[in-house]
Amino acid sequence: MLSSLPKIELLPEHLIDQIKAGEVIERPGNLIKEILENSIDAGSKRIELTIKNNGLDLINLKDDGHGISSTDLPMAFSRHATSKIHRFEDLYQLNSFGFRGEALASISSISKLQCLTFNDFEEEGSEIRIEGGLTTYIGKRLKNSRQTGTEINIQDLFFNTPARLKFIQSQQSEKNFLKKIIFSFIFAHPHVEFSFKLDEDEKEIYPARETLKERILDIVPKSRDHILHTKKSYEDNDLEIYIIPGNLRSPVKFQYPYINQRFVLDKQLLRVINNALLSSFGTDDFHFLAFVTLPTDHIDVNVHPNKTIIKLFETSKVLSLVTASIKELANSDKTSRADTIPPRLEQQGAFGSLGTSQSSLGQERHEYNMEGFFSPHQLSHETQNNFIWMGNTFLYYNQERWEAISATKLLTHYIHEKSKTIPVQIIPLLVSEPFKINPESIKVKELVEYGLELEKLSSDTIVLRGIPDWMNGFPLKDIVGSLLRGESLEKILIDPREWSQSTWEEMMATSGISSLRDKKISLDLRQLLEEKLK
Question: Is the entire prediction scored with pTM above 0.90?
Answer without folding.
Answer: no
